[in-house]
Structures are given as C-alpha cells and as structure tokens.
Specification:
Helix 1 runs parallel beside helix 3. With 472 residues, the chain is α+β, with helices and mostly antiparallel strands. 40% of the residues lie in helices and 26% in strands. This is GspL cytoplasmic actin-ATPase-like domain-containing protein.
C-alpha cells in the first residue's frame, strides 16, 4: 500500500503528519529555506500520496440561493455566483445546504473561498513541480463536520445550531454548524492565554451570525469547546454559564485518534480526515494533474492488457459474424427478387381503365364540389334560424338553383315572403342582415308586387341568397 501523509498548511508553514501520529514528523517554514527543504522532502517521498489540510484565517463564506437545477445548468449558475466572490478567488469549496419545500423551491449552497491564493502558490508549485500525487485538499472547518457525530449528546435542544470552538497550531477556531453542515468559521491567533479570549471570540462570532441572519434569535445555539480536561475549569472561569466543555482526551479515544498534546485538536481532525475522505474538497485543478496522470497510466496498462486479451476473441467473433451476415444477405436478396416478381405479376393482372386516370380524377373532384354545393339541408337550417328571429314574416314559397355546368358551382336560394305593410322596408333590411349572419352568404332584396289598399294586406318581397362556391 502506498504511503500516505496529511500536509497541514497554516500561516506558520507546512507540517507533514502521518495518520495516527500525535505530532508532525516534519515542519517547513514559509521562507526560501523551508520551501527548499520541502522540495527535497517531496523528492524523497515520490510514491507518497498526500492529502492537503488548509488551516488559514483568509476564508470567505457566502450562502447563495439558486433554483433547484441539475447537471450543466447548475454548474454554470454556481460558476457565475462564484465570480461574485472576486476575480482572484480560485480555490472554492461548495456545500449544498438542502432545498426548502416552499411554494417556490430553492436550494441553498455554501461557497467557501480562500481569499489569498498567493500564500498558497509556493506550496502548490512545489507539489506540482515534484509531480506529487495530492488526492484532495480540505479546509479545517469542513473536516469538523465529521466530528459532530462523535460529540456527546447536548444537554438541551439537540436540534439547535452549534458553535464549536477548538484550539490548534494555527490558533483558536470558532465554527457554526446547523443540521450537521458548516455555515461559518472564524480563525484567530491564540495568543499567550487562548482560553481567556475564547468567550469574547465566541460572542463576536455569534453577533456576526445574527447580523447575517445565519442564526435566528428564536433558538439560541449550543456553545461547545473542545479542550483537555485540565483546561475545563479555566474555560468556565473565563465565561458565563451555558458553555459545554467537551473532553478532548475521551473524544480522541472514542474516535481511535492518538492522545492529544494539551488541547491541540489537530491530531483528532487528521484522524477523522483519514477515515472520512468524502468530505467537501477545495477546488485546486493544478494539484490534481499528477493524480490524473497516474490514473491515466494505470488505466492505459490495464486497457492494453484487456485489448490484447480481447483481440483474439473479437477476431474469432467477427469472423463468425461475417459468415452469418453473408448468409443472411444472400437469403435477403433472394426474398427481394421473389417479391419484385410477384409485384410485377400483380400489376400486369390489373385491367386498364376505360378513361385516362387524369380524366377520372377531374370528374371525381367535380362531383365532390357539386355534392358540397348542393348541401341544401345545412343552408335551409341556417335560413330557418333567421325566420325564428322574425316570426312576423311569412314564407310564401322557396326556390333554389344550382348550375351543374358552372366550373365554380354555387347555390342560390330565392325566398318569396310577405311582410306587414307598416315598417316593411326596415323589417326587410333587418331580415336580410340576419340572413347574412346565419347563412354566411350574400342576401339581396328584390321588391315585387304592390300592397292592396286594405291595411290588412301584406307586402310581398323576394330575398335572394347567393352562397359562395364550394371549396375545391
């Protein structure tokens, strides 16, 4: 099995830790001499697989709300949101905080960025030039998510957010976790008496989280401090009630980590990182190049062996398949020839028509147009609806004509009607307009006859309805 090392990077430099060790086996200062020694170290550990653990105060946390997208659409939208963090921000960790079930579903995503890539570049360049394999890069607060499951149960409100304070070589870190996921983290130098500044740092972090609406006022967070039992009394003396001190020694024992040196929680976090590699990682494309090359080399060797082994079987299978394909092609050509012969015989057996096909088609089309133009029932129904609206009009008789020799046959209906003498002209015009609406045809009035002197007589009138030619 390949050798593995955890590289802890802080403002004080870079330290190499073996999983299960209480202290670092090598330390490199952030200067020219330290970088030269680190390059020599990498040369001596050419076959070692490294995991980078970054513990710097230059961190930016931003919670973004996006629609519940998937695939490339989600990646493109997150890339645009990442651009808002700054043009020089390239090392970003993404963590989905879940989707809210509201009328408009939205996903919350935490973007955590390292804001000073220039402090990381010398170490990244050394790893890249040496061709070292860096399996992943992580940030300390995200590794803390693996620690939550091992903490003892809370004394009250187990579902409340947690403010977790811990001490490490880089200083005092206060992180906020909600529903088992990181929401914010803050690292400050420890100083000579780190526990004296612990409670003020927790309060400043809490006030910031309230101002950013990451924490609500309705549910106060649990405040927990990881420390050696010898330091619990000092922590409680420097803070009011409500702080839960967690026994770091017992916690390390339960997690299978080495005993801590004082209240240093770094060996415990390194052990958790080695056992839980699927934690959110920092995007560092340059460091993944050597790993990709190694994977490609392994895949190439395995692929070559598979190709050589399969080529013989594939050749035999191809030969058998070609023989079978030739037989099927010959049989198919024979079937096509027989089918074409039967089709030619069937065509020859069809008797010729007495008239050319074009003349038959033209006659049929004209018959269809005449039948459509002679649809008298539909037209009479439309006329009857007009009479229903004018019951004072009497129908004397009805005539209709249709010229079958007309190239555009159209139906014409003549209505012989009787109207009351009084208001006959107005009623006639209204009736003609009603006919045009119900029949969708042209209605014209043809007055005829003279009313008698008797007022009881009625005015005769002829209304002509010309329907449009039928559609071809």
């Amino acid at each position: 099995m390949a050798d593995r090392r955890i590289l802890h990077l802080s403002a004080a430099g870079l330290a190499s830790h073996a999983p299960g060790a209480s202290a670092a086996d090598s330390h490199f200062a952030p200067d020219a001499d330290g970088l030269a020694r680190f390059a020599t170290y990498l040369t001596a550990h050419a076959r070692t697989r490294f995991t980078l653990l970054i513990d710097l105060p230059d961190e930016l946390f931003s919670t973004e709300t996006i629609p519940p997208l998937r695939g490339r659409d989600r990646l493109r939208l997150l890339a645009r949101r990442q651009e808002r963090l700054g043009a020089g921000v390239t090392h970003v960790t993404r963590l989905s905080l879940g989707t809210r079930n509201t009328s408009k579903p939205e996903e919350s995503v935490l973007l955590a960025a390292l804001t000073r890539p220039e402090s990381l570049r010398p170490w990244f360049d050394a790893l890249t030039h040496a061709g070292s394999i860096v399996t992943s890069a992580h940030s300390i607060p995200f590794v803390g998510m693996a620690l939550l499951a091992h903490l003892p149960p809370a004394a009250y409100a187990p579902d409340a957010p947690q403010l977790l304070a811990s001490l490490g070589p880089a200083g005092l870190r206060v992180s906020c976790y909600s529903d088992g996921k990181l929401r914010f983290s803050r690292l400050t130098p420890a100083g000579a008496d780190p526990w004296a500044s612990c409670h003020p740092e927790i309060q400043r972090t809490r006030q910031y989280l309230h101002a950013q609406r990451i924490l609500g006022h309705d549910m106060p967070p649990q405040i927990r401090v990881l420390a050696h039992p010898d330091h619990h009394a000092t922590i409680r003396n420097n803070a009011p009630d409500g702080i839960d001190c967690v026994d770091l020694v017992a916690l390390a024992h339960n997690c299978g980590a080495p005993p801590p040196i004082g209240s240093d929680s770094l060996p415990l976090l390194i052990q958790l990182l080695a056992r839980a590699p699927r934690l959110p990682a920092i995007h560092v494309p340059a460091l993944g190049r050597a790993q990709r090359i190694a994977r490609i080399g392994q895949a190439a060797i395995l692929g070559t062996a598979l190709v050589v082994g399969a080529s013989f079987a594939l050749g035999a299978a191809n030969y058998m398949a070609s023989q079978e394909s030739d037989a099927q092609s010959t049989q198919l050509r024979t079937q096509i020839t027989d089918a074409q012969r039967l089709l030619d015989q069937a065509r020859a057996a069809i008797p010729p028509t007495p008239h050319p096909p074009a003349a038959i088609h033209a006659t049929h089309a004209r018959a269809v147009r005449l039948h459509a133009a002679a649809d008298i029932d539909t037209r009479l129904n439309a006329v009857s609806r007009a009479f229903d609206q004018h019951p004072q009009i009497e129908l004397d008789r009805l005539e209709w004509t249709l010229n079958p020799t007309d190239p555009d046959p159209a139906l014409t209906i003549r209505l012989h009607i009787n109207l009351p003498i009084q208001g006959a002209n107005t009623l006639a015009e209204t009736f003609a307009a009603t006919l045009q609406t119900t029949t969708q045809a042209t209605a014209t009035i043809d007055p005829t006859g003279t009313p008698a002197a008797d007022a009881k007589q009625r005015q005769p009138l002829v209304v002509r309805i010309d329907f449009p030619p039928s559609a071809p």
